[in-house]
Amino acid sequence: MGILPFVGKHEAAVDDKGRLSIPAEFRNALPGDTQRHVVLTVGSSDFINVFPIDYFNAIYAPSENETANFALDENIDRDMVLLSEAAVRPIDAQGRVTLPQTLLRQANIGQKVVFFGRQKFFTIWNADAFQARLEKVNLSKSDAWNMLADKSKPKV
User: What is the pLDDT of residues 9-67, one digit of tens each?
Assistant: First the structure.
């Protein structure tokens, strides 16, 4: 069996100490060797990205060209936006992670949240923002499957 995907949505609540219990399905999908830590980053709107360490390292791995150009302003700017507020956080014995206050503020997250699985990682949303975004989506299930099929086609 391969690595389990992060799928589905789960409602939860942030406690007074900023801790959040990661759903068991998502904890079980974390790779065994990195199961006790995750990387948290700001999302593009009212959510926090939660990456297994290996996947974060894979998507953030610089290309050879980027390695040679690590000092370019555009790379510095990107890193400032994406990494300055990022955090590596442990998952405690009860399956909870403590969310940094800066990320909670940026994502407008109060007490009620929604975990949303995105296959290789998951996001933590402000519950109201998640519902509003879901209601605004103008995409049929058929169109969504077609988009995925188009993405999977070999390039000629």
Answer: 999 999 999 999 999 999 989 887 666 899 999 998 889 999 999 999 888 877 666 66
Would you identify the CATH topology of the domain 9-152?
Answer: Chemotaxis protein chec (3.40.1550)
Of 41, 8, 3, give the one whose Cα is nearest residue 22: 8
What are the tokens at 56?
């974060």
Give the distance, in angstroms, between the CA of residue 75 and the centroid of all CA atoms in the same chain.
21
Pair 96, 26: CB distance under 8 Å: no
> Domains of the chain: which residue ranges?
9-152
What pTM was estimated for this model as a whole?
0.86
Torsion-angle region of 84 (φ positive above 0: left; ψ -120 to 50: alpha; else: beta): alpha
First CA to last CA distance, the chain: 31
Task: Assess contact for 49 and 40: CB atoms under 8 A.
Answer: yes
Distance, CA of 41 to CA of 45 (rounded, Å): 11
The dihedrals phi and psi of 89, each to the nearest 5 degrees, come to -125, 140
Scanning the structure block, which residue is given the tokens 């060209």? 65
CA distance 13 to 18: 9
Distance CA 50, CA 36 (A): 13
